Each structure stands twice: as structure tokens, then as C-alpha cells.
Amino acid sequence: MIRGCGVARPKPWEVDDELWAVLGPLLPEVERRLRHPGRKRHPDRLVFQGVLFALHTGIAWEHLPQELGFGSGMTCWRRLAEWTGAGVWPRFHEVLLAELRGANALGFSRAAVDGSHIRALKGKPRPDEAPSTGAEPAASTI
Fold it and tell me: What element of type H or E holds 74?
């Protein structure tokens, strides 16, 4: 049998009801002004999917297709900035890790360490970084 045939995989930017039930409440509530309410906000779930779509595909925000229903690229970009400023992403990360740990679904067999966060020493140590031996260097004779 051909692998993957007949099984529709969800797109990476599609958020199902179960996931949204976990993530949706973590988004900040925005009260609508009473006096001059302006246009109604696009639903957070759709905008969230638009952000995921743009980040997954690498498409420019201004080229986000309106036909997908995620709102405009500028709406998604602004909401991304709003949520970033509100600290939403670290909360998402914590909650999702807790859910995965609780379901015993975290596997570290393919874990990797990012070398940009670890000091990589190259070549010989510089004189000012040479390990101390306790002895004073010999005086040079000229």
C-alpha cells in the first residue's frame, strides 16, 4: 500500500477544536469601545490560523490570500505583534509542553542542541585566556 494514500492530513495552520479549546483562552481579551466601536475584530481563531499560514509558508504578509478567510495580512501581522507584546507565545509553549508531558507524548530521541547558544572554542587559547599554571612566565633576555 502506498504510504499516506487515502488519509487526509490536516494542514499545519489548521487549528482543530480541541487545540483551540486549550489555546483560545490564553489570548488576551480585547474590549470593544462603547462610544466609537469601529469595525468588529476578525475572529482570533481565524487570525491565528493566518499567522500560522504565513509563518509556515513564508509568504509575505501583504500577499496573504483573502480567500482563505484569515483576514488581511496586515490584520494578522498586527495581531501577531499584539500577542507577542502580551506574552502569549511563552504561555502557549508552557501549556502545550505541559499537555504533551501529561499525555507522555514528548520524545527526546531526536533532540538537538543549537550551537548558537553554546560557546564554541576554536584554535589555541589566546594569551589572555591561557590557563594559569601558578608559575610566573620567565623573563625574556634581550
Answer: helix 73-85
Name the pLDDT band for 17 (thresholds 50, 70, 90). very high
Among the listed residues 40, 50, 53, 44, the one whose alpha carbon sits nearest the alpha carbon of residue 23: 44
> What CA dihedral angle connects 56, 62, 63 and 66, to 10 degrees?
100
List, for residues 46-69, the tens digit of each pLDDT value: 999 999 999 999 999 999 999 999
What pLDDT is attached to residue 137? 56
d(CA 78, CA 47) in angstroms, rounded, equals 10
User: Which three cell numbers mark 100?
Assistant: 504533551
What span, in angstroms and rounded, lies between the C-alpha atoms of 11 and 34?
Answer: 38
**Alpha-carbon Rg for the chain in angstroms:** 26
Which residue in the block uniquely carries the three cell numbers 483551540?
20
Dihedral angle at the C-alpha atoms of 87, 68, 10, 52, nearest 10 degrees? -20
Q: Backbone dihedral region of 6: left (phi > 0), alpha (psi from -120 to 50 degrees) or beta? A: left
If pLDDT is split at 50, 70 and 90, which confidence band does 1 have? very low
